[in-house]
Design goal:
It is built from 6 helices and 33 strands. A hairpin with a 2-residue loop joins strand 18 and strand 19. The termini are far apart. It binds CU-O-CU linkage and copper (II) ion.
Length: 489
């Protein structure tokens, strides 16, 4: 009840209230224009598109009552939107101007493990790390964020995150809203907790599934509104929160889900609600009427019938973002959907699966072990298609993510996945005690001494050990399997 009392009228009122340990989300006036992360500059030389990113400290006034110390890429909070096309060779030069070491991971990207930006690719303070690979996967909405072992929650929470949009022939040919920042909106949704001076707070009270803020922001804007000028708008939703799960809905209309984590669905699906656990993305197309004002809402979340503790995410209802439609709207053509045969990477076939592995998540462990930087947990053969059977045996939320791949959900406790989970995925919410059978192919990039990660994307869980490491190897390299030298961070 105290938590609900914190649903105050405005940000300013909220600061007058002292119940900051509550996790109900405060309501705000939607009076701040939505910030749109700039598209990152790049230069092309010798066929390589190179981006410069600097991770650094800054200050941000979220509530208008004082500066919060924040971290960002090329700015004080969050980072620019990266954009590249399938087939391009990209390079990133990342300069670490933070007061401590970090790393930058390309979430959802298929790339060599040494370029992945996981906890074995730390960037020391003052150093620059170069990551380069060729984009070889379908159009999708991916993202990037740090991955220092034990510190990921803090680094992401302070602001180190950004969107990474991939285009391909099918997405460029499709008639979809695609004017960035106008009718194609990047929406990084995060919740934060503040102290009385407007500084970011991370509550370390051990509550599950981690810090749940009482203030929701989109692209760093609290109480954001966006002017709408077209009949249809595409929303690229990214749950960039450290622990909170959202169930998005729009009043009086469906959201047409066109894409999940790793790319387009075989066919669009009309959804009343789109649930995203930390790390998940969805692209939806929404229709507007001229002159209306409506809000993207986050509804009560069904977390698999579990009783969500009062301090846990998902049971709150709150508005996220206001849309103000102009008096006349530019007509949008009937969206044309990318052809599934072009849009879907390579079809995965269960009958090609040669190995089945089990992963049980419980109490900061996977299969009874906490993350150990010096232990390789799984050895996968390059080119193999495998079934990963994942199960949480704990009545708290978990969100399972695998690096390097996009998987297909074969079944959830023996049943077909719902359409919104039938597309390419790299992260998935685990309802407790259900077995998720995931079909995964490990296409290429064998390297016996550089692991990829799999973990819970609720970042406190990840930091506290709910993570494991796999290597992809050529046959015959079994004896060479190990962790890289100098990875003692
Ligand atoms: Cu988005 Cu291993 O992370
Ligand atoms: Cu978890």
């Amino acid at each position: 009840a105290a938590a609900l009392a914190a649903v105050a009228a405005s940000a300013v009122l909220l600061t007058a209230c002292d119940s900051f340990s509550t996790t109900a989300v405060a309501e705000h006036d939607f009076v701040n224009e939505l910030a749109i992360p700039p598209l990152a500059d790049s230069t092309v030389e010798d066929g390589v598109r190179t981006f410069q990113l600097t991770a650094g400290q800054g200050t941000t006034s979220f509530l208008g009552i004082g500066d919060a110390e924040t971290w960002g890429f090329n700015g004080a909070f969050l980072g620019p939107t990266l954009r590249a096309e399938r087939g391009e060779r990209v390079a990133f030069e990342i300069d670490n101007q933070l007061p401590e070491a970090t790393s930058v991971h390309w979430h959802g990207m298929h790339l060599p493990a040494a370029m992945d930006g996981g906890p074995h690719q730390m960037i020391e303070q003052g150093e620059t790390w170069r990551s380069t690979w060729t984009i070889d996967q379908p159009a999708s909405t991916l993202w990037y964020h740090p991955h220092p072992h034990g510190e990921t929650e803090k680094h992401v929470y302070l602001g180190l995150a950004g969107m990474f949009i991939l285009d391909d022939d099918a997405s460029l040919a499709a008639d979809l809203p695609s004017e960035y920042g106008v009718d194609d909106l990047p929406l990084i949704v995060q919740d934060k907790e503040f102290d009385n001076s407007g500084r970011l707070a991370l509550n370390d009270d051990g509550s599950e599934p981690g810090t749940l803020g009482d203030t929701v922001m989109v692209n760093g804007t609290v109480g954001a509104y966006q002017e709408v000028t077209t009949e249809q708008v595409r929303l690229r939703l990214l749950n960039g929160s450290t622990a909170r799960t959202y169930t998005f809905e729009m009043p009086d209309r469906p959201m047409t889900l066109i894409s999940t984590d790793g790319g387009f669905l075989d066919a669009p699906v009309e959804m009343d609600q789109v649930r995203l656990a930390p790390g998940e993305r969805a692209e939806v197309v929404v229709s507007f009427d001229a002159g209306e004002t409506v809000r993207l809402h986050s509804s009560k979340t069904d977390l698999g019938g579990i009783v969500v503790p009062a301090t846990s995410g998902g049971n709150d209802e709150f508005d996220v973002l206001e849309f103000r439609a102009a008096a006349t709207l530019t007509p949008s053509s009937e969206p044309s959907w990318p052809q599934a045969k072009d849009a879907v990477a390579d079809e995965l076939h269960e009958d090609e699966a040669s190995v089945t592995r089990d992963f049980v998540l419980n109490t900061r462990e996977i299969n009874g072990e906490q993350m150990d930087m010096n232990r390789i947990d799984e050895v996968v053969h390059v080119g193999a298609t495998e079934v990963w059977e994942v199960r949480s045996t704990q009545p708290i939320p978990h969100s399972f993510h695998i690096h390097d791949v996009q998987f297909r959900v074969l079944s959830i406790d023996g049943r077909e996945p719902p359409p919104e989970l039938a597309g390419p995925k790299d992260t998935i919410y685990l309802n407790p005690n259900l077995t998720y059978r995931l079909l995964v192919r490990f296409e290429d990039y064998a390297d016996p001494t550089m692991p990829y990660m799999y973990h819970c994307h609720m970042l406190l869980h990840e930091d506290e050990g709910m993570m494991g490491q796999f290597v992809v190897i050529e046959s015959g390299d079994e004896d060479r399997v190990g962790v890289p030298e100098h990875s003692g961070h």
